[in-house]
Amino acid sequence: MNKTGYSLGLLLTAGAAFAAGWIIKPSSAPTDQDLATSTVGSGSLISPKTAPKAPAKALEPSAMAVETKDFIARYLKNGSLDAKGMTKAMEEVMKESDPVKQNRMIAEILENLTKDNAKEALAAITKMGQRNPARFYMTALFNSAWGRIDGEAAVASAKENSNGRMAGMGVATALSGWAMEDPDKAMAWVAAQEDTGMTKMMYEGGIINGLARTDPDAATDYLLKMEGNEEAKSRYLDTIATEKMKEGIDEATKWATDLTDPKLKADAFEDLANQYSQQDPAKAAEWVEGQAGEPHAKKAIEEVADEWAEVDPKSAFEWAVTLDGDVQADAVSASFKEWAESDPTTASEYLTEMDASPAKDNAISGFTDQLAREDPESAVTWATTIQDEGIRIDAVEGAARTWFRKDAEAAGTWLETSGLPAESVTKITAEPERRGGFDFLRGDR
Fold first, then answer.
1. If you ran DSSP here, which 8-state letter would residue 80 be given?
2. Contact 362, 333 (CB under 8 A)
3. Contact indicator for 206, 174 with CB cutoff of 8 Å
4. Greatest pairwise CA separation for the chain in angstroms
């Protein structure tokens, strides 16, 4: 859940990636008994999704073994790889069809990358063609590696040989490598550029991405001095949080606590919650409870509930209902939203057995939020069973809005007799807001 979408941090590390039932549908305003006795004939059930296929059997280690022995040795001259040798070595890499073997070959090439042969490596990748998806990842990988051994040349090459946004990305990946080895010069280069807006943000993201790997505290200082897009700062913070987590949760917590900007502090705790709960959700729950009551912990608690629900939704929900106040509502809703996505059958059955309560209202809210993506009509029916008026109206509006986008005629007919206030009808039938163009930081959703 955490900061979903296309993030610059993800793109900056793309090179590293290269190397590696039945749902119960209540009738209108039903009782719990009605829900429990629903039948197919009455139209109270929707068809299950196709059962997932069993995962393919993993290959035995011996089957994955590939031979790359003496690959790079064939092109070395006096123990080093000159420009001519690099060209020939890259030609062999490009002819290799086995991705595992090709990755090992590239790793050997990177170990022998120098100021004198880096351009030949990039030239070979460029010949892959614009439509080859591997070209982007390999370019990012080589730009970063080149940046570590000759930052100025790598950055200059990326800026000269690409256009528009891709030029900014190329420079950012080179800056990431440069910042790992010589952050002062890399930062000075960025400060001297006249580029503004998105381009400069990508440059700064490159600095943070590289600096965070060698000195996350320095990366934090750099981020705090950035001016402009607060959303970008929030996303770059995730990269630093990842590195701080490697120092242990205590050090990571101290780092997040020391942030003085309220929004960044909340974002940092959310990032840590996301990562910690994926490692050990029960311990993450104990950890985040120690922050309960603090403004910065609200999203973190919701994040733990969401991530825990991915592996054990019942335990996540049972933990969420032990919380107090608004954080309970958010955590309950988040856990049931995830439960509805992973196992809608059990989630709907569990709801039918719950006694009416504020927790059940919030659980249904989360359930309908997810269900609306697949069956908005059923989600609307579920939403009308919520007891709390405010929660009910919000849930009904959300589900009906999705229904109206998918089937305006059917949803419109329902609206005529729904009894919803005019304000709600306006929200449901209004044209969705559209962002201009592709949102690079969030993704085009």
1. B
2. yes
3. yes
4. 85
| Secondary structure class of 77 (helix, strand, coil) | strand
Query: Token pair for residue 267?
Result: 């974002």
Single out the residue of 252, 190, 260, 194 nearest to residue 226, CA to CA.
Answer: 190
Q: What does the DSSP 8-state code read for residue 372?
A: T
Contacts of 173 (CB under 8 A, 6+ apart): 12, 14, 15, 139, 140, 143, 144, 147, 158, 206
Q: What is the pLDDT of residues 149-206, one digit of tens each?
A: 999 999 999 988 766 666 688 899 999 999 999 999 999 999 999 877 888 889 999 9
Structure tokens at 95: 């002819």
The tens digit of pLDDT for each residue in 113-153 reads: 999 999 999 999 888 877 787 888 888 999 999 999 999 99
Query: If you ran DSSP here, which 8-state letter would residue 194 be given?
Result: -
Which tokens go with 18? 């290269």
Closest by CA position to 207, among listed 221, 229, 222:
222
Query: Nearest-5° angle of CA 300, CA 306, CA 309?
Result: 140
**Interstrand relation of 23-24 and 45-46 (parallel, antiparallel or unpaired):** antiparallel
Report how far residue 395's alpha carbon sits from residue 399's, in angstroms, rounded to the nearest whole number: 6
- In DSSP notation, 68-135 reads -TTTGGGG-BTTB--HHHHHHHHHHHHH---HHHHHHHHHHHHHT--TTTHHHHHHHHHTT-TT-HHH
Q: Is 432 helix (H, G, I), strand (E, B) or coil?
A: coil
Helix 230-245 vs helix 216-225: angle between axes, to the nearest 10 degrees? 170
Classify residue 60 as exposed, middle or buried by CB count within 10 Å of its CB (0-12, 13-18, 19+).
Answer: exposed
Tell me the one-letter amino acid at 155.
V
- The Cα 11–Cα 373 span in angstroms is 28
Helix, strand, coil percent values for the chain (each to nearest 5): 70, 0, 30
Local structure of residue 40 (DSSP, 8 states): T
Strand partners, 77: 80
Q: DSSP code of 445?
A: -
